[in-house]
Amino acid sequence: MLRRLYDWTLSLAARPRAPYALAAVSFSESSFFPVPPDVMLVPMMLARPERAWLYGTICTVTSVLGGVFGYLIGLLMYDTVGLWLIEFYGLSGKVELFRAWYEEYGSWVILLGGLTPLPYKLVTIMSGLAGYNLLWFILLSILARGARFYFIALLMSQFGPTIKALIDRHFNLLAALGVVLFIGGFAAIKFLL
């Protein structure tokens, strides 16, 4: 099933609307959607390495915009939408601890959440709930998300054919690793909190 999704995403890159789909996934992942944009981003960059930097820019911009939406959920709609999302991810009992983290490590929480497999949507919602400075939140999000997506663009633009051959040869192992990282990000949040 994952192989078919990967092949389908590779074929999607040639379609004119592919960047719009990538933007929608990147935006929604930063505020509520559980699947990271890397699932689309990497195959699209592999299919069109000459567009890797464009795709990285799309992900950076829409991820930050989605992060602002997540921030607003935490700031203005926490009692309804935000609380439901936090409960959905199983973190409702950890909110006060997360707020305390912001008081001590606010900038680091945003940077680490933006760079790592930790669920960025939780960082954005909790940033709004904690009342973290919106301008600093945006600047740190640009830095973290830009570093993440442009690093992927650098790898794909420089080593795309080699990486594609590696993925094709070891797809099952790499897919399993991706699933472990995805689940590990949520597990890390639960463990750390």
UniProtKB/TrEMBL annotation:
<feature type="transmembrane region" description="Helical">
    <location>
        <begin position="122"/>
        <end position="142"/>
    </location>
</feature>
<feature type="transmembrane region" description="Helical">
    <location>
        <begin position="173"/>
        <end position="192"/>
    </location>
</feature>
<feature type="transmembrane region" description="Helical">
    <location>
        <begin position="53"/>
        <end position="78"/>
    </location>
</feature>
<protein>
    <submittedName>
        <fullName>YqaA family protein</fullName>
    </submittedName>
</protein>
<keyword id="KW-1133">Transmembrane helix</keyword>
<keyword id="KW-0472">Membrane</keyword>
<keyword id="KW-0812">Transmembrane</keyword>
<dbReference type="InterPro" id="IPR051311">
    <property type="entry name" value="DedA_domain"/>
</dbReference>
